[in-house]
Design a protein that fits this description.
With 117 residues, this protein is an all-alpha fold. It contains five helices and no strands. It is flat.
């Protein structure tokens, strides 16, 4: 009966590695939410002043209070694009393998098909 309880605890996320990963993700999530909030305020003010390109194309969106979910989804979308762009740039700038540091074995095709001949 004890094994069942241990398995249940393991499934509920009692693994310390998961907790460590979640705690490590908190700064990233906080930065993303701050960026989203800043973009939301900026988009909201543009719509409120009538300077948003969205309002120029769709004049019925001139009341940002009535369409706050639209502006919030735009802010989340822009944040996701900026986050993906930044991640891509960091990944491309990360030092990787240098030429000559990885040696590839030459294929031995003659030995692969010996058993079928």
């Amino acid at each position: 009966m004890t094994d069942v309880h241990e398995a249940t605890r393991a499934r509920r996320g009692a693994d310390p590695r998961l907790r460590k990963d979640l705690v490590g993700a908190l700064p990233d999530a906080a930065v993303a939410l701050v960026i989203t909030a800043l973009l939301y305020v900026w988009l909201y003010r543009l719509a409120q002043d009538g300077q948003s390109n969205t309002v120029l194309v769709m004049p019925f969106m001139d009341n940002p209070d009535a369409h706050r979910w639209y502006w919030l989804s735009q802010a989340f979308g822009w944040t996701a694009l900026l986050w993906a762009w930044g991640t891509l740039l960091l990944g491309l700038n990360r030092p990787g393998f240098r030429r000559g540091s990885v040696t590839w074995n030459q294929p031995r095709s003659g030995q692969v098909f010996q058993g079928s001949a």
